[in-house]
Design a protein that fits this description.
The complex is a heterodimer of chains A (153) and B (502).
Chain A lengths: L2 H24 L11 H24 L7 H5 L4 H21 L1 H16 L4 H22 L12
Helix pairs in contact in A: 1-2, 4-5, 5-6
Chain B lengths: L1 H13 L2 H19 L5 H8 L8 H26 L8 H12 L3 H34 L4 H19 L3 H15 L2 E2 L6 E2 L13 H19 L18 H23 L5 H15 L12 H16 L1 H7 L5 H12 L8 H4 L1 H22 L3 H8 L3 H20 L2 H19 L5 H23 L6 H4 L1 H15 L20
Helix pairs in contact in B: 1-16, 2-4, 2-16, 3-4, 3-9, 3-14, 3-18, 4-5, 4-6, 4-12, 4-14, 4-16, 4-17, 5-6, 5-12, 6-10, 6-12, 6-13, 6-16, 7-8, 7-20, 7-22, 8-20, 9-18, 9-19, 10-11, 10-12, 11-12, 18-19
The chains are: A mainly alpha (153), B mainly alpha (502).
Chain lengths: 153, 502
Amino acid sequence: MKKTYLVNDLVWITFAFVVCLGGLKLGFGSFHAPQAGFMPFLAGLLLGILAIVDLVQGFLHKWERDKPDKVIWAEIHWGKLITTLSALILYTILFSTLGFLIGTFFLLLFLYQVMERKSWGVVLIASGVTTGLFYVAFKIGLDSQLPRGFLGF
Amino acid sequence: MDLFNQLFLGFAVVFQPVNLFYCFIGVLIGTLVGVLPGMGPVAAMSLLLPATFHTTPVASIIMLAGIYYGAMYGGSTTSILVNIPGEAASVMTCLDGYQMARQGKAGRALGISAFGSFIAGSIGIIGLVLIAPPLVDFALKFGPPEYFSLMVFGLTILTFLTSASMVRALMMAAFGLIVGTMGLDNISGLARFTFNIPELLDGVGLVPVVMGLFGISEVFLNIEMKVKREVFTTKVKGLLPTLQDWAQSIGAILRGTVIGFFLGILPGGGAVISSFVSYAIEKRISKHPEEFGKGTIEGVAAPESANNSAAQGAFIPLLTLGIPSNVVMAMLLGALIIHGVTPGPLLLTQHPELFWGVVASMYVGNIMLLFLNLPLIGLWVQLLKVPYSILFPLIILFCLLGSYSINNSTMDVAIMMVFGVIGYLMKKISLEAAPMVLAFVLGPMMETALRQSLIKSKGSFSIFFTRPISATCLILAIALMVIPLLPWFRRPGVSLEQEDVK
């Protein structure tokens, strides 16, 4: 049994059920006077039915046409993946507080080291130059309202 | 004569320095993202969309369109030299292009790819000029039922053609429809699935969704893969195809052009499908099919021509009906709406400078691309040698700032991250993102058309089957859903994630 695809279908069925409930809560109305929940309910229903069909097809064919679980999850660099994702979430949370220049400099410092270990001197220069170029492009070139942060720049 | 005057207007628009500049920037960036694996035209367009807020709608669309067809040119370079498709529409070019490069014919492969693209692009533009204006008159007869049925048909074609599993592709389309309902209801003004977050009242933005699904997810995938790029270090020479090359490939170029153009027009079609179909047909009609995959020049000429003419054909449904036929066109639709322009049958009369300016820019852009892709090939080869450890932080930063700068909101960045993770998981289990994005864009339009139709018919669904255009679209859509159930039918769909390009 390929657990990944089984879990996938179950997740979609649950999601579709929640959406249908949400649609009903918003108000389905009737076919001659559809309300706000009309479309979400229909889309949720469609998703639920399709996920059930996919699940049944999976059981019937024993997921023979799908990739094995081992292939899907093999050779994943969980460490790199999770640290990169965490860094991005942290950056998003602290972006306004730290400001563009400080936040981006530290993010790049981290990202440049994540993929390939390099000397700190090279990484510091690369991060500084890249941050500066992005600042010029977005702040000066495109007039974007980048956050200044608690230090005021 | 009228057509001539309109084209003249278009050229007068495109030769304004600012438009010429944006056209050049568009094709340059298009070539760049086409060359660099891991970043397609969709991500690049969403990235640069905020940059166009300060310019006119014409310049904006000229640049974004340039990125699209520019990427079709650039994608072939990576396919031929590295055996990794620069973008999805260049997958088929890998098969014979890389083999030609291994046999020392990289220059000829790149040359025929660029010339084939130019010929196909130019013919595609002529097709666009000839077909779009009459289609506008036809589109004026469309009411809500016709629009709804056409959009259903478009989504069905996309799910039918692009995925190995139609059920899963339809699931993704349903998911897109659900995401599209978030925000204020257009008719009642009621907040739907906003979780009391004020930023979600306007719904989820197209740019964060696309950047997450296509940009961030790609970075996550690349982080986990140990892809070793082997770029041909020998000097690429002999870019001009020989007479024998021309004789061998001109038929493939012309057939690819016609196939690509008509598949590009079809809602749900596009450059990727066109390149697959044209390659398959070329192999089938060839006198030496056994040479395909071993470095035959027709195997490069056909898909490259098809993806370029499809790029031009795809503009027809967007500019005449206001319906995007693929994800890239959905991005352009978003850009037009942001600039206050409503695409559809009235675009040609209300904004002729935009319509004809964009068409004329494609002529100019194609010529620019020929010069960018042949004499400057050495530059693009050098670019391919930039390690991914340097590229990936830049792609992430572009995505982060691109999402943020649309509304200056970290909520958009958070949405992008969420869709980045969703996109990554979808790619892991071969769920296609394209039907999801197209349904997400079409969803609000479909909902309005559906509700208007039902109100008009007092709740009767027969309105969709008693009007000829609507009935035709729905019957075709139903037929497409039924065909895979027939025992003798073999699915044509090729999942790009599963496509083995080695």
